[in-house]
């Protein structure tokens, strides 16, 4: 059973004793409790680094879940009644609610939306935005469109009773409640926006969008990052048109620590031009970050691309069919060069029949391969409770780690080099050693160079601060910084460096338990 943040804290405090500080570990925790704990720690591991160095997991069309039509407030399953035959019942993208998705480590939530313009005949009760798996061409109209809409809507009756925004509001409130219990977490809300009808009045389309975003921000109770927020801490953000997240400079710690925000809204429009062919005024909203043109803001691999990149199903399938894994081949399929746009790199799996028969699936096997490539997130379809793919995405801590912390070397994450010059591919923290290697990195947080320096002598009575200062001095003497990998691609590179180490070497990482915050942090 997953424990909420408050429940975990209460349980941990009850286990304190004899000078031992427990680092978010429960005695007798189940394997699944460890998976959830490791994912929570992993999601926060690089919060002092730029956003384009981050890696998170996500879900595709997160709100299109069978949960929301089979577990209504009245207790009546809609899948046997008014929602029978809809995509939400027969072939949904998801099966669990947003809270359970977040509990498993998801930090990239997608709302697949359709905006109905005023001329469209099925725009009910003034509502403009609906949560749909959008597979309807903009030229479709009349009875054919209504039949398609009734089939694919993710929420029972959303287009019949005008409650589309109400359902999305409930999902936003669910995210808000989870964030209240996880004050150090940052969540991306990705809006994939399609449209039906003709944009006859740009002002109406913009007003509809602003009303929808106002509903989202109110439901998220002041947690959403704005363009003004970034200007207030020294960024120069343009309010008009497509606006970039400064992903190579902005950190999660800036968003959470300095600005007290926990949500970033990013958007992709299926039509990026207004009725006269000019810029889409919907992009002027103070809370929306979308396409950008700043050549200095680049993705995790240092390439320019779209924000967010949403590759086609066939591209991902083509890559999976290759007999030999190759990140460059993946990039050539998924990330075409686009000098006008850039940002974060993402891959969506889509297992629904409506999107090509469910062959574009992110699995345990290709997660291990994808994790070696320069991506910021991948979004899974049909995430289940205790889904094994989540564990496959843990690149940081080894099973049942981190363990209890005492002052000294156990405060640090470590890599233990094993037999045959191969290294454990995850972190531990319990080796009591008198001598260790130190992981050093170059100053580039996105694409660092790594080096391991041996010869750090550790006094058994030394405090964690003393050990940290010694490790920093050792790296600085070689013109480098005490470092730690903060995403799976960096871990892959670090492990390649460790292969040159002698058997039995313990390597200290600059990923340390901070007793004052009761958190593991990188510096």
Automatic annotation (TrEMBL):
Cited InterPro entries: PLC-like_Pdiesterase_TIM-brl, Telomere_Capping_Maintenance
Single GO molecular function: phosphoric diester hydrolase activity
Cellular component terms per the entry's GO annotation: membrane
TM helices/strands, residue ranges: none
Top-rank lineage group of the source organism: Bacteria
Keywords linked to the UniProt accession: Membrane, Transmembrane, Transmembrane helix
Identification of the protein by name: Uncharacterized protein
GO BP term, example: lipid metabolic process
Subcellular location per the Swiss-Prot or TrEMBL entry: Membrane
